[in-house]
Specification:
By secondary structure, the chain is α+β, with helices and mostly antiparallel strands. The radius of gyration is 14 Å and the shape is globular. The longest helix has 13 residues. Helix content is 17%, strand content 40%.
Length: 108
């Protein structure tokens, strides 16, 4: 775990080799996640209660003919995802949960 003044980062590696980072506020609440590796992580598990919101936004993007990389900005939820076979990366964060000293660019 890496700690900063305004947040902590908890890093885990899945058995498939994908690295996942959880960004936690000082109160312990996850406000962002990132992933990078050969396989996509289980987004339902990563996004939790926000998965349905992500799913609706992703479906809407597909219906409009959008292709990868995926960029979803649905009210408070932002999900960016790109990659190709054996090389995927992405991040998801909640705009209203970002600590004041944290910018979207610092979530990697």
């Amino acid at each position: 775990m890496t700690c900063g003044a305004s947040y902590a980062v908890h890093e885990i590696q899945t058995p498939a080799g994908t690295t996942i980072r959880e960004y936690l506020s000082p109160s312990g609440k996850v406000f962002a996640v990132t992933w990078q590796g050969p396989w996509l992580p289980d987004l339902q598990q990563l996004l939790g209660s926000y998965f349905t919101q992500y799913q609706r936004a992703a479906q809407s993007a597909r219906e409009r003919g959008a292709r990868a990389p995926v960029l979803i900005r649905d009210s408070n939820l932002v999900v960016e995802q790109s990659g190709h076979m054996r090389s995927f990366s992405g991040r998801a964060y909640l705009l209203d949960q970002l600590p004041s000293a944290v910018t979207a660019e610092s979530i990697r």
